[in-house]
Amino acid sequence: MRYHYVVGLAVAALLGVQSAQAQSSADALLAARLSLSKQDYAAASATYQQALKRQPGAAKDYYQAAEAAARNQEPKAALQLLKQAVNKGYFPAEDLEAEESFMSLTSQAGWNHLLTRARTKQQRHEARFDPQLVALLKKIEYQDQHFRLVTEVADKKLGLNSAQADDAMRQQSVMDYQTIKQVDSLIAQHGYPGKSLVGEYQKDVAFFVIQHNPDAKYLPLLTAAADQGEFSWSALALLIDRLKTEQGEKQVYGSQSLFDRKGHGKLYPIEDEVRVNERRAKVGLEPLEEYLHQHGLVYQAPTAAGNLNPPELYVDFKEGQEAEERPSVELVGGYETLYAGLRYPEAARQQNVSGHVTVQLTIDKDGVPKDLAVVNGLGHGCDEEALRAMRAARFINAAGEDHEIRMELPFPYEPARK
User: Fold this and answer.
1) Domain ranges in the chain?
2) Which of 91-100, 157-166, 324-333 has the lowest mean pLDDT?
3) Angle of helix 75-88 versus helix 41-54 axis, rounded to 10
4) Architecture of domain 21-126 in CATH?
């Protein structure tokens, strides 16, 4: 009995040492991520490498360590860390090529070999799935991201809210309407097209399309899919928060902030905020203070003793609701007058076409429509007639700045009976 007791103490001591090492490594990785977010690349690189030598990390840890090393002009270390990230995780070669942090690595002898390794791994992984479905998800991913990336580049080169960025986002908005229809069709045929249907590389694509076209109707489907491991629960947490804040409710995971045109940010209120980091950890999200720091917000997680964050850090829902109640633009003459002026095309009449044409447009500061586009049409001359009517319309623009809207025009128009 004494022998077993001594062995038990030894095992307990060993487990205690391992637990302490794991905590020490976790603390070091947190410090490294914070240094990376502050662009202190020397500290981030050194801390990452020390932590990962003591204890192996996740694919994301090696990827971020590679970013820090590359930014700190340590190409050999960066390549080695990135190789480990590719071995552990799922990183498409084209994403590695597009990552700005790795531009300094492209002249290194091992760079092309690393890209080949990433491509080969993806090809072998995706060979197990329906090639047409995988190809479709890749196309949808491109459509979902293209103009957003154009906007990001414009923001970096020209500053926030440039004309080029605004134009790109208008084009992306039209594209979003098309991609959500594609995803709806896929869901009708297959259910959520996640990990079991398209693999690790494309499992989140359909979710991000939905995230850009948020609707609570998708939540039961997405929750079941996330629970089954079809895509990331950490991604779903962001949608849950977004839907709640849009309804004027407190968010759950603290992912939603509001930034004005000058880049000043506020955090939407959080329910049971004392336990927010517990909920974030459960779905694989970093602590909220770390997440918000990356977005330029200083935050301290509240405790049972109180909340040390200033009230000014939080969005006032009442102010937001009052702003929403005040119309930014008002159609001169009213909607009934606009609809009554629509001409029902003869081609549509012959084919008995009916429904709505959705037009996206921007109202300039003088109330004149510009950048018109049909995002959901009927054909048979209805789309052209909708654009004609909207070009002729005029608005009162109380905001005094460009305002983007969508409008549905009925074909044929039938006035309500009194």
Assistant:
1) 21-126, 128-225, 232-326, 329-411
2) 324-333
3) 50
4) Alpha Horseshoe (1.25)
